[in-house]
Amino acid sequence: MSQKQILNTENAPAAIGPYNQAIKAGDTLYVSGQIPLIPETMELINSSVADETHQVLKNVQAILTHAGYTLNDVVKASIFISNMDDFAIINEVYAQYFTDNQPARETVAVKTLPKNVNVEISVIAWKA
């Protein structure tokens, strides 16, 4: 029976609450929701929804890399946005990262996200 493994990297923002960046259980990696924080400074990117989405996906990618996974290993993505009017912009940026083998996904509009950001993304990755 495999144990769960807690994973954190300095290449992604430190957790801003009582959680870890990722948990590996068996061959599955669960990456906590990422917001557009710059890892080195913990400052928010808020110049545009596109810039926020790029930073969020860079943070996701950094955690995946630290754990030995890639974007191609992602089987499920959950996107939370503060305004459904931003869906097209977020989707356009997302498509630049998930070019092949796109994961299952949902996008949900929510009232408020941590630090009042416009986008948060969590993923589940798997590889044998």
TrEMBL record:
InterPro entries recorded: RidA (IPR006056), RutC-like_sf (IPR035959), YjgF/YER057c/UK114 (IPR006175)
Locate the coiled-coil region(s) and give their ranges: none
Which Gene Ontology molecular-function terms are recorded? deaminase activity
What does the entry list under GO cellular component? cytosol
Name any one Pfam family assigned in the record: Ribonuc_L-PSP
Similarity comment: family membership: Belongs to the RutC family.
* UniProt-recorded name of the protein: Reactive intermediate/imine deaminase
> Origin organism of this chain?
Sphingobacterium gobiense
Tell me the classification of the organism that encodes this protein: Bacteria, Pseudomonadati, Bacteroidota, Sphingobacteriia, Sphingobacteriales
